[in-house]
Design brief:
By secondary structure, this protein is mostly helical. It has four helices and no strands. The protein has one domain. Helix content is 55%, strand content 0%. The longest helix is centred in the N-terminal third of the chain and has 14 residues. It is elongated and about 55 Å long. The N and C termini lie far apart (57 Å).
């Protein structure tokens, strides 16, 4: 059963994705569905292969809600340029 999903995305990304979908002769909905299927599937029967880079950024690691990213970045730079 198909259900409707609303997403908020950057307008430029939407336009590029629509152009990509058109070039592939697929609907944008179908591409998103196939991508999500490949991320959540435990087998290798995905409709198209997701690049190793994209797979590497989908680690499932949770970022703490109270993370002070400015402090973390500052600490990183201080350590790097000691």
């Amino acid at each position: 059963m198909d259900k409707k999903l609303t997403l908020k995305l950057n307008q430029e990304i939407i336009e590029r994705a629509k152009e990509y979908a058109s070039n592939k002769k697929m609907s944008l909905s179908r591409i998103v569905e196939a991508y999500l299927q490949s991320l959540t599937s435990n087998d290798d029967t995905a409709e198209f292969e997701i690049s190793p880079f994209v797979k590497s950024i989908s680690t499932g690691t949770e970022i703490p809600a109270n993370l002070d990213y400015k402090k973390e970045y500052s600490d990183y730079l201080n350590e790097k340029y000691k």
